[in-house]
Amino acid sequence: MTLYDLVAPGLDTCAEPRYRITEIRDADPLGADALLAALPAMNRDADVAALTVALRTLVPDLDRVSEWCVIEALAAMRDLGMLLGSLKRHGVQPVAAVPEVLPVLEELARRTDMVPRDTVHHYTTWNPLGPRQRMYTGHEMEAHLQEAVRMVFPSLVAALDTCGQLARLEPYDPGFALALDRTAQHVQAMVDAIDFTIANVSPSYFARTLRPYFEEVDVAGRDYLGPAAAQVPLWLVDLTVWQCDRPHPGYDAFLDESVEYSLPAWRDFHATHKGGVSAVSKLSAALSWETVHQLPPQLLASAHSLARVLRILKTFRARHIGIARKAYSDEVRLYDEGSGGAPVALLRSVLDLTRDNETLVRQATERPRPSAA
Ligand code: HEM
User: 136 CA distance to ligand 1 centroid (A)?
Assistant: First the structure.
């Protein structure tokens, strides 16, 4: 049994409707099952006329939209989103082609308190499994990439709690190391997901076939990014562990854009912790006050737990940059930037920052100290 199996069923009884994964997957408020089963064939044939008719057919009356609960509204956005990305892939701005979709996208955004297009969560976690699974290409590598992202959602939800606890604790508290150890378990899901991706998704399939479906689309004069894995909010963990008080122009700009594509509670978490003191800074300060040769055991435990989380983050990023470099190499790439709007160079910077913080924490505990005279 994986961590996903343990955490995911618990989410289904949550008060937060966006965590009720099974209900969202089951919902088909637009009656889109049959039409979306034909989507891979329409995309294969680049049948823009059929895609346009399909989008027009699915657009619901605004009166119906206003009666939907959040769960139905999320499912409707998921299904319209598949057609938005498909039309754009074939060179058509979907809202220009089917203008009546605009007020619906805006109303769905308002009802769900999210951006007015589909996100990575619509495309993966909230996407049904089995014969109802929505896909652009129907290729098994697309299903594998969706599965990889699906694997991490419950862990990131759980990490939100443990990182929230971390932010309230000091390195001398026993809870500090405990919150970090739990966070480490959750972040391990990212490593498992990227290993699964490397084993099952070829960089050239991603770069040449799938990436074009994640282009941005224009909604009321603004470009909104596609449902790309880069929107997976690993920043939820970075924030309280090392990032909130360590500014970096490139990563900060990427985060400012990514946060908008996340869930309301996660955006609140970002706003709450943005100006806080990170675990790395708290630990550095505590270590600098210690002049004794031997560190108090609790402080040492906190340092080891913090280094472990940073090491797992680093492992994810080191493996992830490997597949990203291949997909964006000169030989295969169709685009200069990732679907999240940033180049591979950003991944290098974030990996370096993660590694620098891990080294800082590790070395701080290894540093020779003056013995208490
Ligand atoms: C073929 C597979 C993949 C490729 C080629 C790829 C490529 C990229 C690129 C180029 C970026 C930079 C930002 C941007 O897209 O604009 C990025 C960011 C990111 N990707 Fe991926 N990615 C892949 C799969 C995944 C998977 C499966 C996950 C998670 C389960 C993931 C999680 C992330 C995260 C969290 C970021 C933000 C930067 C960070 O936190 O290090 N990616 N990816």
Answer: 19
Instruction: Tell me, rounded to whole angstroms, the distance of Cα 338 from its chain centroid.
Output: 14
Atom number, ligand 1, closest to the C-alpha of residue 351: 41
Q: Are 241 and 309 in contact (CB under 8 A)?
A: yes
**148: nearest Cα among 196, 103, 101, 113:** 196
Q: Which two tokens stand for residue 58?
A: 């699915």
Look-up of token digits 């603004």? 222
- Written as one letter, the residue type at 117 is R
> Does residue 230's CB lie within 6 angstroms of at least one atom of ligand 1?
yes
Instruction: Report the atom number in ligand 1 closest to the C-alpha of 233.
Output: 35
12-49 pLDDT tens trace? 777 899 999 999 999 999 999 999 999 999 999 999 99
* Token digits of residue 241: 């562990």
* Whole-angstrom distance, CA of residue 154 vs CA of residue 125: 9
Both structure tokens of 169: 């604790």
Count Cβ atoms below 10 Å from residue 12 Cβ, excluding itself. Answer: 12
Token code pair at residue 347: 């991944």
DSSP state for residue 240 in the 8-state scheme: I
12 and 21 Cβ atoms separated by less than 8 Å: yes
Give the residue whose CA is nearest to atom 19 of ligand 1: 230
Give the residue whose CA is nearest to atom 20 of ligand 1: 230
How far away, in angstroms, is 38 Cα from ligand 1 center?
28
Helices assigned H by DSSP within 168-230: 174-200, 203-205
> Tens of pLDDT along 260-318?
999 999 999 999 999 999 999 999 999 888 776 778 899 999 999 999 999 999 999 99
User: What secondary structure does DSSP assign to 109-150, as a single string?
Assistant: HHHHTS-SS--HHHHTTTSPPGGG---SS--HHHHHHHHHHH
| Cα-to-centroid distance, 159 and ligand 1 (Å) | 19
Residue to substitute in 320, 323, 352 for testing ligand 1 pocket (most ligand atoms within 8 angstroms of CB): 320
Do residues 95 and 101 touch, judged by C-beta distance below 8 A?
yes
Q: What's the gap in Å between 284 CA and the centre of ligand 1?
A: 30
Residue 259 Cβ inside 6 Å of ligand 1? The answer reads no
